[in-house]
TrEMBL record:
GO molecular function: 3-hydroxyacyl-CoA dehydratase activity
One Pfam family recorded for the sequence: ECH_1
Protein's name in the database: enoyl-CoA hydratase
InterPro entries, sorted: ClpP/crotonase-like_dom_sf (IPR029045), Enoyl-CoA_hyd/isom_CS (IPR018376), Enoyl-CoA_hydra/iso (IPR001753), Enoyl-CoA_hydra_C (IPR014748)
Keywords of the record: Fatty acid metabolism, Lipid metabolism, Lyase
NCBIfam families: PRK05862.1
Function: Could possibly oxidize fatty acids using specific components.
Gene: echA8_2
Signal peptide: none
GO biological process: fatty acid beta-oxidation
Catalysed conversion reaction: a (3S)-3-hydroxyacyl-CoA = a (2E)-enoyl-CoA + H2O; a 4-saturated-(3S)-3-hydroxyacyl-CoA = a (3E)-enoyl-CoA + H2O
Family of the protein in this entry: Belongs to the enoyl-CoA hydratase/isomerase family.
PROSITE patterns linked: ENOYL_COA_HYDRATASE
Length: 258
């Protein structure tokens, strides 16, 4: 498929999507988000792909939704088209793991897209922020919700109300990112992590992702029950039998994703 705003490639079982509008610091316009959703559709449907890495450039993961595309829209425009949620939500419905590899700016919609991924690996030059308040508006793709759940009210509130950016170290301390890696090894490291995930039992990986995500959607009691039931269900898979047999026999497991 020919894309104009993203680059798509595969590294073995890992699908790599690179946001590619360098002239606009990867600002997220409608065309880019449509292509991103399509690329996720393709990787999700491809049985050879076990995990996806989403990245940008060394200067910017994405500097936000495209301000120039948005600026002249009326309330009726954005309300009627439910601006632009349908495409933007696609990452969150992907059942395979999606890792955000963030270097440079992840601002506004860029920070929101990174937070839609399962976890964020940050380059040491990464900067996160929700600067929409500077534009006379506020985050519109989950920033006030996901950031607050990720880092707590005090920091999320300060970032949304003042547009203060967080550097990678603060983001790691606050729990927004899983790890910091040197900028020049970010993609290699993200692919290595994705390959590690792909080497494991895919149904178990998908179930673990589903179960962690449940923690954001439900009560503790319901979440724990969900986890227990889904844990029970792994006992019907060949991979659970293989994983435990391999441990007992002191050998490496050979998962078949069944
Ligand atoms: N939209 C459009 N163009 C952008 C954007 C953007 N978000 N960010 C940067 N650009 C463009 C610049 O206009 C510039 O283009 P040109 O060369 O034609 O003038 C080019 O990218 C390079 O940018 P700068 O010259 O500004 O680069 P600097 O290194 O000087 O500054 C910054 C980098 C600090 C990142 C600066 O570009 C900036 O502040 N950008 C805007 C950040 C921002 O406000 N982001 C939030 C946008 S609003 C949003 O994301 C709402 C999300 C809600 C989504 C709802 C969907 C459902």
């Amino acid at each position: 498929m020919a894309y104009e705003n993203i680059l798509v490639s595969t590294k073995g079982p890992v699908g790599l999507i690179t946001l590619n509008r360098p002239e606009a610091l990867n600002a997220l316009n409608k065309a880019l988000m449509t292509e991103l959703a399509e690329a996720i559709d393709v990787f999700e449907a491809d049985d050879a792909i076990g995990a996806i890495v989403l990245t940008g450039s060394e200067k910017a993961f994405a500097a936000g939704a495209d301000i120039k595309e948005m600026q002249s829209k009326s309330y009726m425009d954005v309300y009627k088209e439910d601006f632009i949620t349908a495409n933007w939500e696609r990452i969150t419905t992907c059942r395979k793991p999606v890792i955000a590899a963030v270097a440079g700016y992840a601002l506004g919609g860029g920070c929101e897209v990174a937070m839609m991924c399962d976890f964020i690996l940050a380059a040491d030059n990464a900067r996160f922020g929700q600067p929409e308040i500077n534009l006379g508006t506020l985050p519109g793709a989950g920033g006030t919700q996901r950031l607050t759940r990720a880092i707590g009210k005090a920091k999320a509130m300060e970032m949304c109300l003042t547009a203060r950016m967080m550097d990678a170290e603060e983001a790691e301390r606050a729990g927004l990112v899983s790890r910091i890696v040197p900028a020049d090894s970010l993609i290699d490291e993200a692919i290595k992590v994705a390959e590690r995930i792909c080497s494991l039992s895919r149904p178990s990986v998908m179930m673990a992702k589903e179960s962690v995500n449940k923690a954001f959607e439900t009560t503790l009691r319901e979440g724990i029950l969900f986890e227990r039931r889904i844990f029970h269900s792994t006992f019907s898979t060949e991979d659970q039998k293989e994983g435990m047999a391999a441990f007992a026999e002191k050998r490496k497991p050979q998962f078949k994703n069944r």
